[in-house]
Amino acid sequence: MIIAIDGPAASGKGTLSKQLAAHYRLPHLDTGLLYRGVALAMTIARQPLEDAALAEAAARNLKLDDLSDPRLRSAEMGGAASIVAAIPAVRAALLDFQRAFANQPAGAVLDGRDIGTVVAPHADAKLFVTATAEERARRRVRELRGRGAHADEAQILADIQARDARDGARSVAPLKAAPDARLLDTTNLDIDAAFRAAVALIDGA
Ligand code: C5P
């Protein structure tokens, strides 16, 4: 069984995908980490994120070991990832790995922006997970403050809106729901309720 989970930044799709992978006993790939990995490699090498040839080379040289670096999780790297993710050659370079992961015999859960549309259009179940930008910003603030980190809600909302705009407007694989995706709006759902709703949609698919 292949489960494709797409949605905007901070929609809760990461947590949901982990829970679904455990529930259905499937391997899980957070595809955002691949784009974050390219962005981090470019940043460490002090290369401009917009340089298509260098970014493509970084994507081709990406190693699985690179994806456990804690620096990948920062908000800055999320923003930087959305810049390299708009480069078609970077997306092409990362496609084979994602497709191979999706097509392993056991099946898989993949989450990202273009799983149901590009990476695994034949997925058995597709969910498009959303929440309002304001609610996503509130969740990010709670998460950061929970970790004792500083969080400026207005700034975080602006960052989320900028990333939505960039991910939705790019010419290759823009963030959009596949025509056959089931919509899951988590604005008024807590983590458990979102998980139950997702299982109901998948089992009913
Ligand atoms: O999901 P996450 O916030 O880690 O993704 C970081 C960025 O990587 C996104 O804003 C998006 O631009 C890009 N991305 C993508 N396609 C995916 C996953 C992530 O373009 N499948």
Q: Bound compounds, please?
A: cytidine-5'-monophosphate
The major sheet is characterized as: 5 strands, parallel
Mean pLDDT: 95
CATH architecture: 3-Layer(aba) Sandwich
Percent helix, as a range, is 40-55%
CA-to-CA gap between the ends? 12 Å
Give a written overview of the molecule:
The protein has 205 residues and is an alpha/beta fold. The chain has a single domain (2-198), classed as P-loop containing nucleotide triphosphate hydrolases (Rossmann fold), CATH 3.40.50. 53% of the residues lie in helices and 11% in strands. It has 9 helices and 5 strands. The protein has a 5-stranded parallel sheet with strand order 2-3-1-4-5, sandwiched between helices. Helix 3 (52-60) runs parallel beside helix 5 (88-102). The longest helix is centred in the last third of the chain and has 17 residues, at 153-169. Bound molecules: cytidine-5'-monophosphate. Cytidine-5'-monophosphate binds at residues 9, 31-32, 35-36, 78, 81-82, 85, 112-114, 163, 167. This is Cytidylate kinase. It is found in: Cytoplasm. One of its GO terms (molecular function) is ATP binding.
